[in-house]
Amino acid sequence: MRLDKYMAESTQCTRSESRDLIRSGRVSVNGAVCKHPERQVSELDDIRLDGRSSTHQDFVYLMLNKPEGVVSASTDRRDTTVVDLVQAAYPRRELFPAGRLDKTSTGFVLITDDGAFAHDILAPKRHVPKTYRVTLDTPLTPEMAQGFAAGVTLADGTRLSPAEVTALSADGRTVRVVLHQGVYHQIKRMFGVYGAGVNALHREAIGGVVLDDTLAPGQWRELTAGEVAQIAAR
Ligand code: URA
């Protein structure tokens, strides 16, 4: 591929920024400075920016703060999707959400183009914990907390694995829930067993990685390599 395309993809800059980098003499190919954006290169070439190896980025991993009303899908005929919010920055990537939040829910959605990673972290056997802040229409009761700890049986007979729930507010209506599996509408259905309704649901963390509180709804950033490893290692 062309050197400017390679640099744009490996450093996540635009094509014109990439051309500027090259023309200013900061890029070398196989030990020699190259100022020609059109130069053809391949993965076999040693391409460096400011003397540092610029390895081609194989996959993209994003932390998005999903706003309410956006659906956790790649495409949708009616609604804005989580991928619509980030796609412009990665026009050639086939991005998808690794795990879903309901349309009305908010918070951390991990978006990637790494199918093996997504499959791995979503596998039921892996139990990557997900942490949620939930607002209820009624206070948390000891019966709910004991039921969650033992493993709730849903109305359709599905037996869930144990989950943790703790009150965050004095009135007991704001709680934190940690799940170790992902069943459709899981939290709403778990509280539904006790006749409690969910007014708001926000995912705070996936594994040990906490959603940045500097990300406003709709904003996102790339995960660091350490964060990707931390989620994958669970
Ligand atoms: N449980 C739910 O009910 N909804 C979500 O979006 C996530 C977990």
Number of strands: 13
Ligand species: uracil
What is the mean predicted local confidence, pLDDT?
Answer: 92
Give the structural class: alpha+beta
Oligomeric description of these chains: single chain
Rg from alpha-carbon coordinates: 22 Å
Largest sheet, in brief, is:
9 strands, mixed
**Kindly, what is the distance between the CA atoms of the first and last residues, rounded to a whole number of angstroms?**
37 Å
The CATH superfamily of the largest domain appears as Pseudouridine synthase I, catalytic domain, N-terminal subdomain
Please give the share of residues in helix. Answer: 10-25%
- Topology as H/E string? HHEEEEEEEHEHEEHEEEH
Strand content range: 15-25%
Parts with pLDDT < 50 across at least 5 consecutive residues:
none
Q: Report the top-level CATH class of the largest domain.
A: Alpha Beta
Number of domains: 3
Shape: elongated
CATH topology of the largest domain, by name, is Alpha-Beta Plaits
Number of helices: 6
Give the CATH architecture of the largest domain: 2-Layer Sandwich
Summarize the structure.
The protein is of the alpha+beta class. The protein has 6 helices and 13 strands. The relative contact order is 0.15.
Give an overview of the whole structure.
- The protein is of the alpha+beta class and 234 residues long.
- It has 3 domains: 51 residues, Structural Genomics Hypothetical 15.5 Kd Protein In mrcA-pckA Intergenic Region, Chain A (Roll); 84 residues, 2-Layer Sandwich (Alpha-Beta Plaits), CATH 3.30.70; 77 residues, Alpha-Beta Plaits (2-Layer Sandwich).
- The chain is 21% helix and 24% strand.
- The chain is built from 6 helices and 13 strands.
- The strands form 2 sheets. Strands 5, 6, 7, 8, 9, 10, 11, 12 and 13 form a 9-stranded mixed beta sheet that branches. The protein has a 4-stranded antiparallel beta sheet with strand order 2-1-3-4.
- Helix 1 crosses helix 2.
- The longest helix has 9 residues.
- It is elongated, with a radius of gyration of 22 Å.
- 29% of the residues are buried.
- The model has no long low-confidence stretch (mean pLDDT 92).
- Bound molecules: uracil (URA).
- Uracil binds next to helix 5.
- The site of uracil has 8 residues, from helix 5.
